[in-house]
Amino acid sequence: MSNNHNGSTTFFPEARELPGGEREFMMDVRTSDLEVSMGPQHPATHGVMKILIRTDGELVTAAQPQLGFLHRSAEKIGENVEWLQYLPYTDRYDYLAAMNNNLGYSMAVEDLLDVEIPKRAQLLRMICVELNRVASHLVAFGTYGLDLGAITPFLYAFREREWILMLFEKICGARLTYTYLRIGGVFNDAPPGWLTEVEHFCDVFEEKWQEYYDLLMVNQIFVKRTSHVGVITPQQATDFGLTGPMLRGSGVSFDLRRDVPYMQYRQAYESGAFEVPVGTGEKGTLGDCWDRIYVRVQECMESIGIVRWCLGCIEEGPVVGDIGKTLKVPPGESYVGIENPRGELGHYVLSDGGKGASRCRVRGPSFCNLAILEDIMPGTLLADSVAIIGSTDVVIGETDR
Amino acid sequence: MWYPLSTVATQAAITSTPEGNAVLRWLHGIAPESVPAWTLPLVTASISVAFVVTMIALIAMVAVWLERKISGHIQCRYGPMYAGVWHGWAQTIADGVKLLQKEDMIPLGADRPLFMLAPAIVLGAIFGAFVAMPLAPDMFFADINMGVFFILGMSSLTTIGVVMSGWASNSKWSLYGAMREAAQVVAYEIPLGLALMVPLIVAGTFNLREASALQSDWFGMGWLLFKNPFVFPAAILFFIAALAETKRAPFDLPEAESELVAGFLTEYSGIRWSFFFMEEYAAMYLMSLVAAVFFFGGFESPSTHMAGEWFGGGSFVHNLVAALTLIVKSMMGVIFMMWIRWTLPRVRIDQVMTMGYKYLTPLSLICVLGAAVWEALIA
């Protein structure tokens, strides 16, 4: 976007004709446009992202996300450290779903190793990953309420998230950056009674979930603020390579846990432990902000279902596979994509038989999902742009890595 | 033409009713002969101003503390617990002291005179509005016949201060906040005034004291709310419009912290910021007070009625109970506003405008018309 003052042409796309016909903007009377940078220190960007927006009054006419404020060369570090040493770095890109990041990297390395993961380790991994997904979606849900001015649901969501973090603290000692899922299995076995506590959490959470749903999701102001806003058509969603709730919110049923199953997810799906919720346009248009946040809220319940299934079939056994005393990774390359709370988190590692990866790349879901903002934000109001940014649920640590 | 101050004050003393203003009456009683008569209204005015300032500060202090406690309990936490030992009652004082000590920051490029004037206008306007507020049936600062008109006019004046602050801050976010405030207040002044016209039609007076006295029948429950079927919807409309007028959630668009950082408050800090804050709570109280007087019986309640029966109308106990009744009623309104703030999301600017112009204004017009017809034909 070029500055308005240097004589370049002004950029005024027509106000988007939104289905539902609720919002039309009269563009005949125009005021001079104002370029504002939303961020890097803006509460709506959930971190240090900057969105350069051009506004005509309250109407956003152009928007451009600008990234890189949190760049830490995570991928390059992956080439300089040993296999196991890189695991803590994976915690730090999507810090709201560190278990998932551990899993993605571990699985990419295990793909080269040809090692069998014990069943108990797999189930422990699944429990942790799904609980982490619930925690991450709770943050997404809570901060989305915050973006729309509802402060209380945020604290309710954090209350339950706190419980999950407490469970994680008991199993691995950390609350945010776990490094619990290791190459070959998990770091240690669950302490005695931990699985019972998880079950207790599941029971309580199911009650609380309904409370959240009634408090925010079906609140009329919330529905009016989010329906018909930031509509992503299924075609657009696939064109932009969106994954995760962003894609499923547009009605495209694609979930790596079901479609490219890993660990025990195939068995879990076949025994009916979880479904893949998709947006239906229930409150507005298919693929609007409400649908996206609805998918996240529904996924919390599905994750609880998976955790319950895992608790049902977990049995005693080893928690680490046989990876040898020193990790010897044979030469080769592998790419493993897993279903992160935000979409497909892919890890590509290339081994030349040395101590660490010779190439290490990450496909971050937040980064890929962010690209669509430039297309869906023009034509909305300033308050809508906040709702749209919130509904993408970006974690800046992962977009910038 | 200029008159000497003594002449003006004497004129004021003559035109104002000495038996009305309790302070003036008291001064008349105790002043020795040697004191010239024209000084008494001046002293009265000084005392009244000091009282109003103290009262607003106290109201804001209690309301801020209440807001924090209420939000805390709504959100499954305690809120302040340490300052002052008992449930953190002194938290606001501690915060006030902190705010006083902060550096007085004026951003570079800001319009300095306007930037400094804005908080003063905002606070001054709300001080002015409180002058027309009756404390008790026999105690008030100014017994203005157009009392509620004066209150609404003065509280609308705060908008000028807010717009001024947004413009002077030299920040785009502040400017957005100011423009939103201007648009919102223009849209909601109309339904606010019209909704208030309904009880005014029923009561037949603009004077807060007289309107309150009208509601003393039915053992103190003869509230205007029950005297005309159109007053109840008008009360709801008034409450919604008052929320928008005082920039409270879900209409807190001017300072929408997740959209506009802090709106017109973005560049303010320290004591200037706290002036805006104080104004917000004072305005909440004021709007609740107007609602209490014109919809919910004002000073009148069964307890006021009983106090009047037992200790005699106009006695000290009667006045005290009446004053407490009004404070409790106003605080209930404030608490209700807080409850709403911590429950609902914020509405969007186009929804605010739609609601104001398309729904609230016609509905309040219907209420006014209906109330007028009812009063003319049935009552």
Commentary on this structure:
The complex is a heterodimer of chains A (401) and B (379). Chain A is of the alpha+beta class and 401 residues long. Chain A folds into two domains: 4-66, no CATH class; 74-400, Cytochrome-c3 Hydrogenase, chain B (Orthogonal Bundle), CATH 1.10.645.10. Helix content of chain A is 45%, strand content 12%. Chain A contains 16 helices and eight strands. Chain A has helices at 74-80, 87-91, 98-113, 119-147, 152-172, 194-217, 220-226, 234-239, 245-248, 256-259, 265-270, 289-313, 365-370, 373-376, 382-392, 396-400; strands at residues 34-38, 50-56, 59-66, 181-182, 185-186, 332-340, 343-351, 359-363. A three-stranded antiparallel sheet of chain A has the order 1-2-3. In chain A, β6 (332-340) and β7 form a beta hairpin. Chain A is globular and about 70 Å long. Chain B is mainly α and 379 residues long. Chain B has helices at residues 5-15, 22-30, 39-74, 91-101, 112-131, 147-168, 172-203, 208-213, 217-220, 231-245, 270-294, 302-311, 316-341, 349-377, and strands spanning 134-136, 139-140. In chain B, a hairpin with a 2-residue loop joins β1 and β2 (139-140). In chain B, α11 (270-294) packs across α13 and α12 (302-311) packs antiparallel against α13 (316-341). Classes of the chains: A alpha+beta (401), B mainly alpha (379). Chain A binds chain B through residues 23, 34, 36, 42-44, 57-58, 145-152, 155-156, 159, 215-216, 219, 221-222, 224-225, 381-384, 386, and chain B through 71, 74-77, 172-173, 176, 179-180, 249-250, 252-253, 256-261, 342-351.
